[in-house]
Amino acid sequence: MSHNELWYEDFFDQWYLKYWIQPITAERTHKEVDAIIRFLGLTPECKVLDLCCGQGRHSLELSRRGFQVVGLDLSETLLEASRRQAQEENLSVEFIQADMRRISYENEFDGIFNFYTAFGYFKNDDDNQAVLNAVGKALKPGGRFLLDYPCLEGRMVDWKQQEFFEYDDGTIMLHEMIHDVFDQKIVNHVLYITKDNQRHRTGFTLRHYYGRELQQCLQKAGMKTIGAYGNLDGDKLTNRDIRVLVVAEKTSS
């Protein structure tokens, strides 16, 4: 079963919203936002970009805390959910539909973050580099970028090629993860089966970057890496950590 290179155009749909996002607790979002503020060194007058904001859980929480936030995403389904929530709470977040390679801002943001594995979506390395170039351009000099990304060294220790989840409504999700070691690519096949036997097949592919490569890509985009952490508390990254939080700073104007 293969899926299309443009998987990201269809993957973030109502199924994603219901089964990938709904289980995430408000407490987890609060903790992540605390960490985002700390890693980016944000103060109340800062302007922040949530790159690939999805259904806006971080954007909305930052807005509740008084920050000026722009959320950018490609999925109209998820943006609609974000806008609806912002309206309900009377929050002034600007949600924009755009491709992450094309951020139409220059020297605009004090901080930009990309959370919950939203980098490495493109088959072509130049396209992934274009994302970081756009980030570099959109940051003010001295502004910071925070990337939350899988750490393969830690994940390999207990790599599961297949897993399944059962949700409260009786839906089952089967998830297969195939790691192409030589190509540094993780291909994910996902199959949902509902209680009344509806089936929905989807999937996504990630180009995996190791730390040294990420540093080089950030450097090309005019940013220098100032830290890599193994968790939200800011502990030093080890080869047992399954995620990495990379903080980079824009060096040039």
Structural notes for this entry:
With 253 residues, this protein is an alpha/beta fold. Helix content is 29%, strand content 32%. It folds into two domains: 7-151 and 209-250, Rossmann fold; 155-204. α2 (26-40) packs across α3. The model has no long low-confidence stretch (mean pLDDT 94).
Structural shape: globular
The H-and-E topology, N to C, reads as HHEHEHEEHEHEEEEHEE
Helix content: 25-40%
Would you identify the CATH architecture of the largest domain? 3-Layer(aba) Sandwich
Mean pLDDT over the residues: 94
- Count of helical stretches: 7
Strand content: 25-35%
Total strands: the figure is 11
CATH topology of the largest domain: Rossmann fold
- Radius of gyration from CA coordinates: 18 Å
Straight-line N-to-C gap? 46 Å
Find the structural class using helix and strand composition: alpha/beta
Spatial order of strands in the largest sheet: 3-2-1-4-5-11-10
Major beta-sheet overview: 7 strands, mixed
